[in-house]
Structure formats: C-alpha cells, structure tokens
Amino acid sequence: MIVCKFGGTSVGDAAAIQRLVEIVNARQGERPVLVLSALSRVTNGLLALVPAHPTERKAQLTMLMARHEDLASTLTAPGEALEALRADAAAIAERLAGWADGSVDAELQDWLVAHGELWSTRLVTAALERAGVPATWVDIRPVMRTGGQCSRAVPDQAGLPGRAQAVFGPLLDEGRVPVTQGFIGSTVDGRTTTLGRGGSDYTATLLGAALEAERVEIWTDVDGIMTADPRIVPEARVLRTTSHLEAAELSAFGAKVLHPATQAPLLERGITCVVLNSFAPDRPGTTIVSGFRPEPVMGCSPVRAVSWKPGVTVLNIRSPRMLGASGFLYRLFGVFHEHGVAVDVLASSEVNVSLTVDADGPLEALCRDLESLGEVTLYPNRAIIAVVGVDLRGTRGLAGRLFQAVREINIEVISQGASEINVTFVVKAEEGAEAVRRLHREFFGPGEVAA
Ligand code: ADP
Ligand code: ASP
Ligand code: MG
To answer: Pocket around ligand 1: residues whose beta carbon is below 6 Å from it?
Structure first.
C-alpha cells in the first residue's frame, strides 16, 4: 500500500480536487490511503476565530462555511457530507458563543482548528465517490492517539501500528480508498489535539510506517525539495534525489515544504518518500531515500540547499562560573528540558553560551530559571540560516567562500562542524532572506553545477 498526502493548495478548490481525483484514480492498484490538510488558508481562518470579537467571529465563520458549501455544491457532494459540515458549524457557533473575545483557550483552539481537516476530507471523499472511486471517510482521531499537550501534541507511536492496521487494513482489503485527516489526533480520553502547524506531512509518514507502506507521496504546490524556497529564490532548482537526513536538516531549519518531524518515522524502516507537485503530476519530483550520500563531485557545488528559519530568539548566558567548572552545560540543559524548550544552534566559549530557541516558547519562565546560572541576555527577531551539503566539514575553503558571500551581513552565532552535512549561523531576521539569496547565488549561480 502507499500513503498519499495532499496539502492545503492541493485540495484548495474544485480544480485542485479534480486533479487529486485523477492522481488517486491512477494509483488505485497500489492501495492508497489518503491523508489531507485543510483547504488552503482555512487553518488560519479557524485560528483567527478564537480571539475575534463575537460579531466578527460570526461573519468569519459564515465565510468559512460558505467556501466549503460552495465547493460541496460544485462537487455535487451528497447531502450526508453537507449535513456533517452544517452540524459542525452549529456546534462551533455554540461553543464560541460562550467565549469572551480576546481570551484564548488552547484546548478549544485544538478542537476548533481540527475542523479544517475534518471538512476537507468530507469534501474529497464525496468527490472521489462521484468519480466512481470507492472512498471511505475515516476519523483519524481514535487512531492517532497523542499526549495531552495542546497545539504540539506528541503521537503515541508504539500503539499506532495496531490501531492503524485495525482500521485501515479491512478497508484496503475491501478495495476501498480510505480518506483521513492529517495534523489532528486525540488523547486517550477523546480530547482533540493537533500535531503542530504543517503537521499533515508528519501524519502521512507516521501512518506510512505504521502500515508498512511501500512509499509515502507528499503532494504539494512546488516541484519537490528545491535548492532554496522558490518564493525567495525564484531560480531555485529541484533536487531529484535526497536522503532522509538531508531532508530532515532542511525542514528543521525552515524548509516549509516538509514538517520537521516528517522523515523520522521513515528512517528506521527505510521507506521512500516522494515530494510531488499536484499542479504538474507528471514531473518527477524529489525522491527521498535512506542512506543516499552523494560523494562530492569535482566541479559540482558542494552545497545541496540553503534554508532559513525566522521566528528565532538568541539567548546568551554569561557565567564566569563556567571557567574550569564541570557540569555547567548539564545544569543549563536541565533547565531547557524542564521547560520543554528545544535548542537549535549552540556555540560556547569559556564563559559564554549562545543558543537559539523558537520565539513562541515559554521564554519568560525559562529565563527566570536560567538567571540562577548566569547573566541572561535575549536577542529577539533572529533567523537561522542553514547551508546543507555534501561533506561540508571536509571541503577545503568552504567556510571562507560561504562567509565571503554574506560579508555585508552581520553574523551572530556560528555552528560549524557538528554535522558534516550542515553549517548554521544566525542573522537578524530582516536580513535572512537576503543572506539566503546571496548564498544561493554563490553556490548555484552561473557556472555552478548542482550536486
Ligand atoms: P502544503 O500545503 O502542500 O503542505 P506548504 O506551504 O506547507 O505546502 O509547503 C510548500 C511550500 O514550501 C512551497 O510553496 C515553498 O514556498 C516552501 N518551501 C520552503 N523551502 C522550500 C524548499 N527548499 N523546497 C521547496 N519548497 C520550499
Ligand atoms: N492545516 C494544518 C496547517 O495549516 C496542517 C497542514 O497543513 O499540514 O498547519
Ligand atoms: Mg505543509
């Protein structure tokens, strides 16, 4: 069997859903399970409802419903799908009615935002059935059990294969095409949770591993994983092949084309992942496989791609107590662990540690506890730039070339050498896109051949 995930723009309107139907039709023999995102912009629309003023809320919900109902009528969805949509809209209106504007409740938000995926899957199931594909709508929530953390829930991977096989196995055996939601799950006591923004990719690979898929296809709006985000670097090129590790590095450092956790479930089983363009389904896309380790090729660029991640804060901890002392970093990371804050880039000297964290984490509480270890200074609005390539550590002159390319941009924290495939550094967020463009020009400009 295979898993096919379609992102927001790939289910965004009637034409996109028609293309999806054709793609699925061509794969029926491979026993596909479909994992879908919400229609494009719907997740943001639902999130905006919670803090909105009650009258605005009503108007916004009506608009969101109108978009889904219009699509349902264009697709001539049967009454059952429409009834489900309307019942959900009534339940949302009722739950939000008692909600004062300005207040945000994380549990309510997860429950609310999950409707984007619940609705898109209803519409696509109906469209497939209209086209004669035997599709079945599946609520993923009892299958994708998660911990209780709101908006970034952690899936229970140990129990997933049993639950997924029990639900999807019989449907596939009957020759049906299951259509289910990405991004959402539920706790053991049935509370709806979400896996973090962009989490449908992660759902797809979790299910792919649990169902021992032959392949996971990620259908999106670009030709594959590219040498840089094409929205910033229009001349970026598609990587035909890459490895799970390379793709993981790129997505961890901001390549939005894949959720950062996407490759993890596939690594152990060596399942291939293919990133494809649903607007041009005949193009080859990017194939992500295990163990792909291109050798540096004479005359080819040593760099494979450049990505960047804004929304980052640099924390500097200065502590003369670090001098000659042991166990300092152990205590320091203990504090990060207690607050559940992940560190991306790290550099340390004798009395200083500089590291980067996501700006939307619980930084106030974290800093309060860090004060006991040293003097803490925060530098907000930063971006991480990641250069991913082949044996970067062993490539003579690479660092010189790289930093020469961004010489006019102030570089604040550098981490090189920790991994042979990547060099990361930090700049002010407003200079991030320009740094990516300059690096891309340097390593993929005229005369450079992509590796
Ligand atoms: P979907 O809704 O299909 O999940 P996303 O918007 O989450 O799509 O991801 C696709 C987008 O990722 C592309 O439109 C592109 O702008 C962006 N992107 C960022 N970095 C890269 C990259 N290195 N290669 C390809 N796309 C990238
Ligand atoms: N709809 C969710 C989001 O916009 C999940 C996804 O698209 O992967 O973040
Ligand atoms: Mg996405």
So the answer is: 7-10, 37, 198, 220-222, 225-226, 228-231, 250, 255-257, 305, 307
